[in-house]
Design a protein that fits this description.
Number of helices: 15
Distance between the termini: 33 Å
Bound molecules: ligand A1D88, NADPH dihydro-nicotinamide-adenine-dinucleotide phosphate
Enzyme class: oxidoreductase
Radius of gyration: 21 Å
Number of strands: 20
EC number: 1.3.1.86
CATH architecture of the largest domain: Alpha-Beta Complex
Helix content: 25-40%
Strand content: 15-25%
Keywords: Metal-binding, NADP, Oxidoreductase, Zinc
Structural class: alpha/beta
Largest sheet: 7 strands, mixed
Shape: globular
Oligomer: single chain
Subunit structure: Homodimer.
CATH superfamily of the largest domain: Medium-chain alcohol dehydrogenases, catalytic domain
GO molecular function: crotonyl-CoA reductase activity; metal ion binding; NADP binding
Number of domains: 2
């Protein structure tokens, strides 16, 4: 592994040098274990502690198949899907690996008693499998997390519709929270040169998801002037949705849970901000009964901020707790676009407000390769910036996932894999200097 790191850090290394590097038989990786899936039985979601289920193991290097690449991972990031994996909710991810393993001989590699998790990476290609022409050893890359087979016709308009669509490092093995990752070559994209490894690894999953959900025609198709209600506007998804709204000439109405987070939104350029803790919205009277009066109070607050206008697009992901309010505050003909249900997936809303006002609910999930590429291109052009707040070592991944589970973090949380320290991997110093304040906006807060 030392030889690999030396090659990455040497400015003189060529593609041939990387191709000639011997690959290790094993590497360090963040895992959850199949024989521990019941370890949190009986506990509430909140009390399930990722620090107990997340392990750092030495694992064997997987065989490289056609259309695939082995990547030396310099840095990765924590996504909420790794929180779900680590608390075995809503179901154990080993079921996904078993199901994938049954599909063909090569996919059997994924069905193991351990799951190497993680759906982001920035690093360097070490080897490519047969049939890979677009990438070569030595390429500095980031990887998006869409894994598809594309044998069926269904996915050929929009690859997210492939029946064998999976999220890498969640529904497949050999994810990014490791020193080496196995990806399909059509997950690879160029690493933005003005960013360090950990900065480049941070946006991938959430930036691509927010791009499809909010900007793409497959999602809400946001346009200039739209009022966009963004839940968790300084969180993983929300910090990119807020940037897309601002960069696209829309008006973000940012919901956050503290003054500190409100200030982060202001620093991004937003001025319509709702602190849901300070204003104490209680959309549910009890576990089963919502309070439409509270939807109205929330809607009135939005009207105060917009000069009397309602919401064109809701960027939804908290789910059960907020969905009734989200449907209510959307304007006639508006759109609620949802990609998640952090607070519960059995949503309840008053359907009269949906059909009588011709509103639409759009389900959105990750992004196709083109959408992920366009989202990454905006990062590379310095139009959208990473929202990295804190960086942990691979050994500390359990704590990093705990922070995200308990909503103790801001923006994105990074993890160093092979990178020995933060700040390495920057190739375009001039562009970095142009954007340095925006790049550091979330750091250490
Ligand atoms: C990029 C980052 C993303 C995120 O962070 S997202 C957040 C994290 N992700 C999640 O929380 C999602 C986790 N996944 C799940 O909870 C489950 O994954 C799903 C609920 C999405 C799917 O459930 P399942 O049980 O895996 O699959 P089924 O499709 O429900 O299959 C169950 C059986 O139901 C049959 N079935 C499906 N559709 C129909 C139909 N329309 N009519 C009749 N039967 C149907 C199937 O065939 C199958 O059957 P048979 O068990 O016999 O194989
Ligand atoms: N389908 C897909 O492709 C994707 C789905 N996801 C899912 O989206 C969800 C959010 O992910 P991500 O943004 O990375 O997570 P983060 O935890 O980084 O951010 C979510 C933010 O939502 C807000 N929030 C949390 N709970 C509630 C609640 N009950 N009511 C109102 N606001 C709430 C919090 O902000 P605050 O406290 O400031 O209000 C929190 O910071 C997860 O469930 C994740 O699995 C994520 C990426 C892709």
């Amino acid at each position: 592994m030392k030889e690999i790191l030396d090659a990455i850090q040497s400015p003189d290394s060529t593609s041939a040098d990387f191709a000639a590097l011997p690959l290790p038989e094993s590497y360090r990786a963040i895992t959850v274990h199949k024989d521990e899936t019941e370890m949190f039985a009986g506990l509430t979601t909140r009390d399930k502690d990722p620090r107990k289920s997340i392990h750092l193991d030495e694992v064997p290097l997987p065989e490289l198949g056609p259309g695939e690449a082995l990547v030396a991972v310099m840095a990765s990031s924590v996504n909420y899907n790794s929180v779900w994996t680590s608390i075995f909710e809503p179901l154990s991810t080993f079921g996904f690996l078993e199901r994938y393993g049954r599909t063909n001989e090569l996919a059997k590699r994924h069905d193991l008693p351990y799951h190497i998790i993680g759906s982001d990476l920035a690093g360097v290609v070490l080897r490519t499998g047969p049939g890979v022409n677009a990438w070569k050893p030595g390429d500095e890359v980031v990887a998006h997390c869409l894994s598809v087979e594309l044998e069926s016709s269904d996915g050929h308009n929009d690859t997210m519709l492939d029946p064998e669509q999976r999220i890498w490092g969640f529904e497949t093995n050999f994810g990014g929270l490791a020193e080496i990752a196995l990806v399909k070559s059509n997950q690879l994209m160029p690493k933005p040169g003005h960013l360090s490894w950990e900065e480049a690894a941070a946006p991938g999953l959430v930036n691509s998801t927010a791009y499809r959900q909010l900007v793409s025609r497959n999602g809400a198709g946001m346009k200039q002037g739209d009022n966009v209600l963004i839940w968790g506007a300084s969180g993983g998804l929300g910090s990119y949705a807020t940037q897309f709204a601002l960069a696209g000439g829309a008006n973000p109405i940012c919901v956050v849970s503290s003054e500190q987070k409100a200030n982060i939104c202001r620093s991004m350029g937003a001025d319509a901000i709702i602190d849901r803790t300070a204003e104490d919205y209680k959309f549910w009277k009890d576990e089963t009964t919502q309070d439409p009066k509270e939807w109205k109070r929330f809607g009135k607050r939005i009207r105060d901020l917009t000069g009397g206008e309602d919401i064109d697009i809701v960027f939804e992901h908290p789910g059960r707790e907020t969905f009734g309010a989200s449907v209510f505050v959307t304007r006639k003909g508006g759109t609620i676009t949802t990609c998640a249900s952090t607070s519960g997936y059995m949503h309840e809303y008053d359907n009269r407000y949906l059909w009588m006002s011709l509103k639409r609910i759009i389900g959105s999930h990750f992004a196709n390769y083109r959408e992920a590429w366009e989202a990454n291109r905006l990062i590379a052009k310095g139009k959208i910036h990473p929202t990295l707040s804190k960086v942990y070592s691979l050994e500390e991944t359990g704590q990093a996932a705990y922070d995200v589970h308990r909503n103790l973090h801001q923006g994105k949380v990074g993890v160093l894999a092979l990178a020995p320290e933060e700040g390495l991997g920057v190739r375009d110093h001039d562009k970095r200097a142009q954007h340095i304040d925006a790049i550091n906006r979330f750091r250490n807060i």
